[in-house]
Amino acid sequence: MKKLIIEVRVNEYAMRDGNVHVPWTADELGHDAVAILEAGAAVIHFHARQDDGAPSFVSEDYVAAARAIRHRSDLIMSPTLGQINVGGSQERIKHIVELAQYPDLKPELVAIDTGSANIDRYDAVAKKFLSVNKVYENSHETLMLFCKEFSRLGVRPVISAWNGPFLRSGTALMEMGLIPEPAYALLVHCEGGLLGGHPATTNGLSAFLSHLPTDRRIEWTVCCKHGNLFPVAMQAILSGGHVSIGLGDYGYPELDQPTNAELVTEVVRLARLVGREVATPDEARTILGL
Question: What is the spatial distance between Cα 196 and Cα 148, in angstroms, rounded to a whole number?
Answer without folding.
Answer: 27
